[in-house]
Amino acid sequence: IILTVGHGDAFGIVLMHLIHSARTNPDMTLIVTDNLGYQSTGGQFGFTTPQGAKTDSSPYGMFEHNLMSEGMDVMHILKGAGATFLARHVAMDGQGAVESIKKAILNRGFSLVHMPYPCPTNFASRHLGSRNQVDIYRWIKERSAPLGQEKPETLWATGVWHDASNTRTEFSELIWNTVDKIRRTGTL
After folding, report:
1. Which of 87, 162, 165, 172 is most buried by a 10 A CB count?
2. 11-14, long-range: CB within 8 Å, 24+ apart, which pairs?
3. How far apart are CA 41 and CA 122, in angstroms?
C-alpha cells in the first residue's frame, strides 16, 4: 500500500493510527506532503509550522510547541513506536528523495517519507511577505541540511532517518503465522 497524505491528516488527526501502524508494521509506505500549515483551508498554522512563522492564525508568529519544535520531531516518535523506515526530504532534494521513496517501498513493513514543500500562496505571502516562488524555495533550502550537517537554523534534517528495513515481521505475515500455529497446536 502506498499512500500520499497531507501533514495535517498524518501528524494531527491520524497520529495515533500512525503510531499503531509503526508498532504493528504493516507493509505500507506513507509519503507525507507538508506545506507548513493548513494552507489549502486558509493558511492557519499546523502541527509542523515552524516556530515564529506568521500565518493567518498566528499574525505575530506561531509560538506553540508542535511536532517539529525543540527536539520533539515526529520522526523520533515514529521510530520509538517501531517504524522500520523513516526519511525526510524537502521538495528540492530531487534524486535523494526519489531514492528514499524507492527504499521505503522496498521495505516490507511500515515506512514513512516526510516531504516539506513550499506554498507561495499562503505561507510565503504571510511569513515572507512575498508570493515569489524563488523566495520560498530559497527560504526552505536555507533551513534544510543533510542529517549530521545541521546548523542552528536548520528546521529540516534531510535524508534517511532510520533504516531497519525488513528486520521485523510484517503484520499480515505475523497474523497468518499465528493463525497457523493455533491451528496446528491449539495454543499460542
Report:
1. 87
2. 11/46, 11/47, 11/48, 11/67, 11/74, 12/46, 12/47
3. 10
SS (H, E, C) 29-69: EEEEEECCCEHHHCCECCCCCCCCCCECCECCCCCCCCCCC
Give the C-alpha distances (Å, rounded to integers) separating 166 from 40, 43, 81.
36, 39, 16
C-alpha cell at 104: 521505503
**Residues paired with residue 114 on neighbouring β-strands, in sequence order:** 32, 88
Which grid coordinates are listed for 153? 537554523
Set of cell numbers at residue 80: 520509538
Nearest to 110 by CA among 177, 188, 10: 10
Pairing of the two strands 156-163 and 144-146: parallel
Q: Look at the alpha carbons of 40, 135, 12, 24 in this order and tell me if their dihedral is positive or negative.
A: positive
Contact 35, 118 (CB under 8 A): yes
Q: Which residues pair with 33 in a beta bridge?
A: 6, 115
Q: Give the span between the Cα atoms of 147 and 158, in whole angstroms.
A: 5
> Which element (helix H / strand E) includes 182?
helix 171-185
Is residue 164 within 8 A of residue 19, CB to CB? The reply is no
Q: What is the pLDDT of residues 139-173, one digit of tens each?
A: 999 999 999 999 998 999 999 999 999 999 999 99
What are 106-131's pLDDT values in tens digits? 999 999 999 999 888 888 888 899 88
- The three cell numbers of residue 125 are 505571502
